[in-house]
Amino acid sequence: MTNLLQTASSECKRLYNYLFVYDPQRLATYSQSKQRLVANLTKALLTQVPVLLTYPDGSSEIGRISKRVSAGRFLFLTHDQQLLRLLDLEDVFRLDF
Predict the structure, then answer these.
(1) For the chain, percent helix, then strand, then coil, each to nearest 5?
(2) Distance CA 97, CA 53 (A)
(3) CA-to-CA distance for 64 and 51, rounded, in angstroms?
(4) Residue 97 in contact with residue 51, Cβ under 8 Å?
(5) Once rounded to an integer, what is the mean pLDDT over residues 39-57?
(6) What 3-state class would DSSP assign to 64?
(7) Coil, strand or helix: which one is 33?
(8) Gap between the Cα atoms of 66 and 57, Å rounded
(9) How far apart (Å, rounded) are the C-alpha atoms in residues 89 and 16?
């Protein structure tokens, strides 16, 4: 009975650590491919939904894609609609809806 209780206790601790303890080895943020970025930017332009842009340095912005300037450049309007920024595909790490 004691062995069963110890086994159950250790399994519960292992499960708790797996689900709730911060482990930087398991965390990963992957960049998106350029083709997927273009597709997502075009979709955001057509639907006018807010997007979250993440840059390679870790900073991020929320806003809308307002216009496509060229094949690899878009105009980005921030959420407070005060800043219009020219986005280059090389400057964007990830785009999420």
Answers:
(1) 35, 30, 35
(2) 9
(3) 6
(4) yes
(5) 90
(6) strand
(7) coil
(8) 24
(9) 40
Closest alpha carbon to 92 in 43, 28, 41: 41
Pairing of strands 94-96, 51-54: antiparallel
What distance in Å separates the CA atoms of residue 32 and residue 34, rounded to the nearest whole number? 6
Of 70 and 2, which is predicted with more confidence? 70
Residue 90 corresponds to which tokens in the numbers above? 């090389």
- Sorting pLDDT into bands at 50, 70 and 90, what band is 65? very high
pTM above 0.85, yes or no: no
Q: Which two tokens stand for residue 5?
A: 């209780």
**Phi, psi for 83 (deg, rounded to 5):** -130, 125
Tokens 């980005």 correspond to: 76
Nearest Cα residue to 39 out of 28, 27, 51, 29? 51
Instruction: Tell me if residue 77 falls in helix, strand or coil.
Output: strand
